[in-house]
Design a protein that fits this description.
The protein is mainly α. It has one domain. 80% of the residues lie in helices and 0% in strands. It has 4 helices and no strands. The longest helix is centred in the first third of the chain and has 26 residues, at 3-28.
Length: 110
């Protein structure tokens, strides 16, 4: 496996951890539930650590943009799919614009 591919894989895992952390945060109830709070904090710390590893091979701006946009988009879809949150045209347009921005930023990045 090439180092660049490994970095992108770690970034994908980091995004997944961020999304799981966001879901755990939903259950943490203002940090009043210790298990959900610990799960959220652990996921967030692991996610940030993986970003720190990823930026060794992928540019910082691209890494952060992909991480932030991807975790935002996936978290929004999780909310719609699992928590009966509304799916509005503006939500779809917003996620599409975020994804488009990442594509533009990432084009030609190594």
């Amino acid at each position: 496996m090439s180092p660049l591919f490994a970095a992108w894989l770690l970034l994908a895992i980091s995004v997944a951890l961020e999304v799981v952390g966001n879901v755990a945060l939903r259950y943490a109830d203002g940090f009043s539930r210790p298990i959900a709070t610990a799960a959220a904090v652990t996921c967030f710390l692991l996610s940030i650590w993986l970003i720190s590893v990823t930026i060794r091979k992928i540019e910082l701006g691209v890494t952060y943009a992909v991480w932030a946009a991807s975790s935002t988009a996936v978290t929004a879809w999780v909310g719609v799919g699992f928590y009966d949150e509304s799916l509005t045209a503006s939500k779809v347009a917003g996620v599409a614009l975020v994804v488009l921005g990442v594509i533009v930023l990432s084009s030609g990045a190594g």
